[in-house]
Amino acid sequence: MVYRNANLRAPRETSAAVLVAAAALVLAACSGSGAPAVRADDMAHADRSAVAQGGTLHWAVDAVPTTLNAFAADASPATTLADEALLPTLFTLDAAGKASVDQDYLQSADQVSASPQTVVYTLNPKAVWSDGKPLGVADFAGQWHALSGADPAFGAAGAAHADGYDSIASVAAGAKPNQVKVVFAHPYAPWRSLFAPLYPAAATASPQAFTDGLKSTLAADAGPFTLKGAPGVDGQNTLTVARNPRWWGDRAKLDAIAFTAVAPGDAASALASHRVDVADLSRAADDSGNTPDATSGTEVLRASAPGYLALAFNGGTGLLADPQVRRAVADAVDRQALADAVLKPLNLPAVPLGNHLLMEDQQGYQDDAAALGASAATAAKLLDAAGWRLGAHSDAASGATRINGTKPLALTLLTRAGSARDAALAKLLTAQLAKVGVGLTTKPVPEADFFTKHVAAGDFDLALVTWPASRFPVADERALFAKPQVNSDGSLTVGQNLSGTGTDEIDSLLGQAVAATNPSDATRLTNEADVRIWQAAPSLPLFQSPQLVGIRSNVRNAGAFGFAVPRFQDIGFAAQK
Question: Residue 122: left if φ>0, alpha if ψ -120 to 50, beta else—which one?
Fold first, then answer.
């Protein structure tokens, strides 16, 4: 098979960390069984009264965002951060991803009818854009049109994010002032994921406004901060947001936030020298393998990142197109040993992830890994049944590679060159697969080429891929496991499904889950789908990525947020006592 990709987007890396500060080590909470559990967040919490008024916070990002359009293909984590400070969010999320109405923007948001599904948003009448216009139905209608996929001129942004928006039948004014009524043509359970962030109508007035127009500016903003010039205009490779004078909610404590471009490898030194006040140190540690301690005046906070490391299988072509071989490889991997190798040296809970769709710190999570045999003995039986045999005088313990006829069972593992984490895991995986007679060769490639030239092109057998979790499960994840379409020439249109595999049953269960407006039904269907995904073995979740964030010791209400949306108006520096 040959891949043909449609709207395939690179995952936003939330790499596993191998960096910790001895001064910041705090024992993780334990579950009732005595097993360590992941930590949802780790914050330097403080009441607003304990946060000083004024100052500029320098926040390190990998690069200044090339767009302020969170739905664009080149949107980055820095785009998300800036948008959360500048634009309406409608719902706040806690560290476990639980959504609550953001009272700064909404008085309420309720599903008022199930057939047809109808949601009424009652807007805060004080909420206005920076140009003075109130938030209203035109903003909702414009975003629906841009992201529904109905107009291809909006390009990849609309097509890649049509899920949910393409279920809407109409957007209109509600029966009362400040109300917006959204009627769905098809039920869509994670409706709270829509219109987040919300853009002003001017930003969605045309395809050009939505694409090129959002690369360096916003037609208007409506957050506790407002954009101060275009990204990088001050010559310091920063994007600066300043306190919004029109903001109607709690006044932002900071005068400004400067999102400052710092290469991941330089983040720790930038923090230590106080050039920045907040820096995500996870990527730097992953690449270098170093574990520098916190320096005077800094600390490191840690939690589970909203993402996980997976071993992706290419089931669209090559030896892993055989589902028995994929299952066997998955069974042969000792996920606990991999988690131990990366997480235990950091005194972090080494907990293998048991779900493709839900993280351990999200509501509804259950460990479905029992759907696999998860043992070398099971793997050996599957390989025997698939025709992959050891020589008459060989056994797996001798390191012999299985053959089928004259073809050896030899696979290639794609890793990021320079990643200490990838190198360590590749060594363990090679030894684990050798025990069942599977040969594994590591192929490190430059990070710039890893996804676009190899994974997205289907040029791999196995790959270590960090994948973001959805704050609204299934809303963003159906495309990752959707059954590929076979074209007339035999090629696959895989969309965002890296494995090139899938089943009608998985598609059906995920479709039912996204349409189940009863939360308990949605959770049940999501986990039923996950069990089938484990059995199909398109990928093997390894562990939830840790998130390590360094901050200056006087920074408050920042840190490792987990799934939570930062409350930017509360972030600042400690008040002098």
Answer: beta
Cα torsion angle, 533, 537, 542, 548, sign? negative
Give the helix/strand (H/E) hosting 411. Answer: strand 410-416
Omega within 30 of 0 (cis) for the link into 546: no
> What is the predicted pLDDT for the residue at 527?
96
Residues whose CB falls within 8 Å of the CB of residue 109, separated by 6 or more in sequence, listed in order: 90, 91, 101, 119, 120, 121, 122, 192
To 5 degrees, how large is the angle CA 303–CA 307–CA 309? 105
CB 243 within 8 A of CB 224: yes
The secondary structure of 522-573 as a DSSP string is HHHHHHHHHHHHHHH-SEEEEEEEEEEEEEETTEES-EE-TTPPP-GGG-EE
- State how far the Cα of 127 lies from the Cα of 248, in Å rounded to an integer: 7
Structural contact between residues 48 and 371, judged by C-beta atoms closer than 8 angstroms: no
- C-alpha 433/C-alpha 15 separation (Å) is 24
Confidence at residue 467, expressed as pLDDT on a 0 to 100 scale = 86
Residue 228, Cβ density class (10 Å: 0-12 exposed, 13-18 middle, ≥19 buried): middle
pTM over 0.90, yes/no:
no
Tell me the mean pLDDT per 10 residues along the chain, length 577: 40 32 27 51 95 98 92 89 96 90 98 96 98 97 94 66 86 97 95 95 95 90 91 70 97 97 91 95 72 74 90 94 96 96 82 94 92 88 94 64 94 94 96 96 94 90 91 81 80 77 94 92 95 95 93 97 94 94
